[in-house]
Amino acid sequence: MCGAINNVSDFPLLDPLLGLAGYSEAEIRSVLNKRECRPTDDVLALVPTKLGPRLMAATWWLKLDPDTLLPDTRWNTFNCRSSQILKSPLHQMAPRSYRAVVITDGFYEWQPRYAGGRLYSDLSAEEQQHLPRPQSKQRHWIHRPGELMLLGALCKHWLDAEGNPKVSVGVITLPPHPAFLDVHAKSFPLVLRPEELEDWVNPRLRHEQFGSLFVQTEVRVDVEVQAINDQEFDLIPEEPLILRAPQV
After folding, report:
1. Is 67 within a domain?
2. Can you give the pLDDT at residue 169?
3. How many domains does the chain have?
4. Is the bond preceding residue 95 a cis peptide, omega within 30 degrees?
5. Tens digits of residue pLDDT in 200-247
6. Domain-located, residue 79
7. Any idea which of 1-15, 70-84, 169-183 has the lowest mean pLDDT?
8. Residue 34, CB-side half-sphere exposure with 13 Å CA sphere
9. What local confidence, expressed as pLDDT, does residue 238 receive?
10. Which domain covers residue 164, as residue numbers?
11. In the chain, where do the E strands start and end?
12. I need a surface site. Which of 1, 45, 97, 215 has the fewest CB within 10 A?
């Protein structure tokens, strides 16, 4: 995760979130000019600031070059592995990492198809360790119909040469859910619940207080997975995969 993020232009919680963040709708929509965001693009993020949580455009690549404030592509930091959050020096080095939320109405993954139309789950254990050359890739759309997806993330605050603020983010990824292996066999994003937002973006709370989220092995919210046409974003007519969160 994630191959790409679908930008949000209209969703049920937009107005309350805008009010919480203190931004006008026009300011937020200025960053929503692309339907599909790839790593290094700007995404919509809720980040902690001295004035409280703020919605703003954030570069989808956590580690920036301190001189240019462009993505430092020597390391892939568009995602942040949950198992490394409490260990990696990246999150302690200046500027330190804070928790944030990437707001989207879904994300995309591409999963290879192998010889004979085989999926990842069809491969032998040895083949899964040393993957054969794929013959094609299928794009999938992962979303919560009619609802936002709130992706747990880490952010860093930077200042450019003129003293203007800039924010970068990396999406937190968990190990892949077993039912998700044929969609994306490497990871699944940490999806937050709305009631967790206030604590999550409170910079006074330490990362260690969220340790239970970093070891999740279950899907935390119900999601729908649909195969789509890679060029036109058209849904392929087949039964969607539904991943359901355990009942609490």
Report:
1. yes
2. 97
3. 1
4. yes
5. 999 999 999 999 999 888 888 999 999 888 766 677 777 888 888 887
6. yes
7. 1-15
8. 14
9. 78
10. 4-107+146-218
11. 4-6, 36-37, 42-47, 54-60, 79-81, 98-104, 107-113, 136-143, 149-159, 165-174, 188-189, 191-192, 223-228, 241-243
12. 215
